[in-house]
Amino acid sequence: MTIEAFFLCFNESRMIEHTLNYYSRFCDKITILDNQSTDNSVSIVREKFPDVVVEEFDTNGEYREDILMNIRNNRWKGSEADYVIMADMDEFIVDEHLLDKLEAMKRQRVAIPNITGYNMFSEIFPNDYGRLITEQVTKKFRDRTFDKKIIFSPKWVQEMNFGVGSHFCKPVYKEGVEVQTDHSFSFNLLHFKFLAREYLYKRHRGYATRMSDVNRFLNYGQQYMLGDQHIDKAFDKIGQFLEQKSDLVSQH
């Protein structure tokens, strides 16, 4: 069983170590696809994860979702791994029996597992890189837009046809390949986005500053233009929802 992972990166200095700490436990090869970060993301990789490959790509200093979409749809092609992960830096495929399930999927010729997506939430950023982020941040809420098929078999898939942000796809399987599409294999996707307000302020400002005319024209990534108040409202709403959910659970 071999797993190869690809992660898109732009100024991920606070997240990248969490991501690599987690995935390096079971991935045979990891490639960081860096969009010319201006922070120390790349130096963290080279210092602490020397076996991880770093590739750079240029968007002329702009946030170009069309280019990212093209990378997500093509960079994994040619991988000889049994399964590949094509993800953003804050997306974690999680399951207690992940490797065993992948082995079973391989035997049963399952190319793409089902994905159940969650957004993770914390008012404090998890700064302890000695512990897995999955252990430090456990509050979550269901988000079907993150049922993203970001793990799949390059041996059986010809095209994933990912849309914007990989939130949907239309897979095409290789000619002559018989795969099992009616199955019960499922993994969780944990999206570590809501990790302290100041962390999200900075991320959104970074995307807004680099917003390209192409993105504006196609209406890609417009949530990054809504400002700090939008983030505050989201944090308040999510916090209240999770508190109410916790109260209901405790009552039972």
Automatic annotation (TrEMBL):
InterPro entries registered for this protein in UniProt: Nucleotide-diphossugar_trans
Any Pfam family: Glyco_tranf_2_4
Name this protein carries in UniProt: Glycosyl transferase family 2
Lineage, opening ranks: Bacteria, Pseudomonadati, Bacteroidota, Saprospiria, Saprospirales
